[in-house]
Every structure is written in C-alpha cells, then in structure tokens.
Amino acid sequence: PCQAGQQCERGQCVVQCSDSDPQDDPTVMGTVTNSLGGVGGPVLLPQSDNCAPDGQLSQVECGPNRVISHTFSTCPDGQGCQNGACVCQSGSTELGTGQGSVTLISANLPTLLSAGNWATNEMSFPSTQELLIMVPPVEHTEDDNNDIMGNYLTFRYAHQIAQYTLHFNVAAQSDVTDSTGSADSRGTYLDDFEGTELTLLDNIYTVVLARRPDQRSPDQSVKLILMKGAQRDTLLEGELKTYVIGGQNYEVQLSEINANEATFMINGEATSKLQVGDTWVLGGANTLGVSNVLFQDYAGGIHSASFFLGAQKVELRDDQVTDVTGAYNVKIGSEDIDGTTVIIMGTDNNSTFSISTIAVNMIAQDDYYLGVGNKLSDYIHRTGDEKEVLFTNSWDIRLNSYDEAAGQGVVEVGKLC
C-alpha cells in the first residue's frame, strides 16, 4: 500500500493533491490541499485562491508532480476580485413608498469604492470614495416611452440620481508654476498632479494635464484631463510599431514632433498636430490619446510622445473651487455629458493649489421607468440620452423585486452582472 498522504496512480505511489475547483472557475474560490507523504502523512496547509495586491485573481491548482502552482488573471469587465473569486459587487437597499437616499462606501462596495492614494510628484494623499444614491419611490404609472402601465422605480426629469465624491484625508497639493516648472503666482500649470495616477470608481486614470484654465483670473480654477486605455506606449520620432486592439491591427508611427505637438501616421493616414490631452479617432471606433510630449531641443536630445490606444478621456473642470456649485459638465472625449456637474473643492493662494474633494452630481435628463429586473443604464440608452451620466459608466442601478401589496421592494446598486 502507498504511504499516508500518497495515492496510487498508473502503478505507482504519487503525492496526493486535491483541488476543490479543478475547472478553475474564476467565480469560485477554490482550495488545493496536497501531502508530501511520509510517516503519518504530513498534510500541507490548504491553499486557496486569493486576490493579489494589484486586484488580479490568483488561482491555485495542482501543478506538475502535484506541486501547488499559481496562475494570475484579470476579472471580467463588471466584476472585481473579492475573497478569492471574481464577483459582481453591489449593495441592496429595501425601499418603501417614500423617497430616500443611501450612501455607499468601501465597506459596502470594496472594489468599486476602495480607499485609495493619490501619489503626486511630491507627496501621497490617502483618499476615500462614496456614492450617494437618491432612491425614488416605486410608482404605479404609465411608462411614457411605451405606454405600458406598471410598477416602476421612477427617476423623474431634473431630479438627482446620485452624487459621487472622492475625499482626500488631507488636501492634495501642487505647486503653481509656469510652463518651465518655475514658481509663478500667475502660472497655469499644476505640475505636481501631472503624470500621476488617480482612481475614480474602480477606474485607474493617468492625469495627463492639470491646469488653472481661467485666463482672466486663474486662481481658484482647475481642469484635470484624465486618460486610460487598452494599451499605452511611447514612441521616438520616426519609430513605428504595430498594435492589436480587439483583433484590429494599428500601425503607428511618430512622424513629427515639436515642443508642444506630435503628429502620427496610423495605418498610413496622418493625424493632425496633437497636443497633450488631445485625441484622434481611429478606424474601428478606437481612439488614440496623447499623454505626453517630450522635445529636448539640443543635439542628441530625446524627441518622443506617449499615448494611449483605445483611449478613454475624461475632463473635469471647476472655475471656482471655493464654491459648492459647479458650472461644467463632465466631458467624455470631446462630448459634454448632459446631466452631470463637476464640483471640485479646494483652495488656491497662487503658490499652492489644494484639492480636498472631487465630486460629480448626476441628474436625470428624462423620466426613467425601471421595471423589475431592469437596469438604469439600459433605460437611459433606450431614451437616447447619454448613459455616461452615470459617472465612469462602471456601476448601475437595478430594481430587483417589488411587492405591490406590501409596497416594498429591493434596489441593487454597484457593479451588476
């Protein structure tokens, strides 16, 4: 007989290794246990699937010779890694006949609203996120868009849907400088913010541009241009590379560059001159977004441009950071998103610019009627409105159930599957 902790396989005694999830289902936390055998069969401690620090799913499995091995993967869109599995993260709230609100934080949605850290070019600033949801009543009414009577969670035109807020525990700060990086009380550059990463609702963006944009009175104004994308790279002037996004090939060459602008050839077609923060629509509905231009104007100097392919661009602007109201929509690409208002709170003494909160208010642009099982983003899209009014488009609201007799139901909010 084989020793304890071993099993007979193909005529020989081998180390035991059992896997509770042999199919490596990412939605299941699997556990692997093996034994080295020997007297008494010393069993190794079980190892389970877990979430890596970068958010990837780390799955354990019985590898060659029954030795435990690890594989890493990214969870599908709309899911996050939690407790060793890819899960849809959402929170539910019961509703009655009256309108109310619910505030969700990291304890409710640990991936979507995780605590973060904005590491600027000088310091790091810890942050927290919250999502305030205005939960309207369920009404027995007619859906104006299909003339069907029913029970609907009804978001009325011009009423608030939600407000997202990023809070900094200590206000994030940048020096106020000119284009050369020198301190300047009339400067428009917030260079400590530029080139850094900022997380908003489970989206990691690069801050490609941070400025004081109001030329009449630059103090108190701020504009942040954020980007992320399927691929990110840097090309030297004249360099050419081929990239594949969604099965589509893109041959990209940095054809010309100066101190402020870069021109690319993409599949043989020239772009216009693009500055940092500019985008160019490619074939296949993908976008190139410029994140940095480096032009060292001396012999042997570096001439390069950094960019995102499959770029997603977000612009946040507020010209009065000491005022609790905002005047600008969120801008996605080149489009203003109706129903959104950017509210950035902070201070500016013309030497140091501070940001304490970044908030986005979201307002319904029509009457939206959610029946049981319906998502708000789908309904907004059907009406012809911009579903990007749900800031970052990485969360949603759904009416899961409703008991008409009791006048009670359940609303689900978060990353829905």
Short descriptors:
single chain, 3 domains, 6-stranded antiparallel sheet, 36 strands, globular
Question: Describe it for me?
Answer:
With 417 residues, the protein is mainly β. It folds into three domains: 6-88, no CATH class; 93-221 and 319-416, no CATH class; 230-313, no CATH class. It contains one helix and 36 strands. The strands form ten sheets. Strands 12, 13, 14, 17, 32 and 33 form a six-stranded antiparallel β-sheet that branches. Strands 18-19-20-29-30-31 form a six-stranded antiparallel β-sheet, with no helix packed on it. Strands 21-28-27-26 form a four-stranded antiparallel β-sheet, with no helix packed on it. It is globular, with a radius of gyration of 26 Å. The protein starts with 5 loop residues before the first strand and ends with a strand. 35% of the residues are buried. Residues 37-41 have low confidence and may be disordered.
Structural topology:
Layout: E1 6-9, E2 12-15, E3 17-19, E4 31-34, E5 47-48, E6 50-51, E7 57-62, E8 68-73, E9 80-82, E10 85-87, E11 90-95, E12 100-104, E13 116-119, E14 124-135, E15 138-143, E16 148-155, E17 160-175, E18 197-200, E19 203-211, E20 222-228, E21 231-236, E22 240-245, E23 248-257, E24 262-266, E25 269-270, E26 279-281, E27 287-295, E28 303-309, E29 312-318, E30 331-332, E31 335-336, E32 340-348, E33 352-363, E34 368-370, H1 376-382, E35 396-403, E36 408-414
Antiparallel strand pairs: 1-2, 3-4, 4-5, 6-7, 7-8, 9-10, 11-36, 12-14, 13-14, 14-17, 15-16, 16-34, 17-33, 18-19, 19-20, 20-29, 21-28, 22-23, 23-24, 24-25, 26-27, 27-28, 29-30, 30-31, 32-33, 35-36
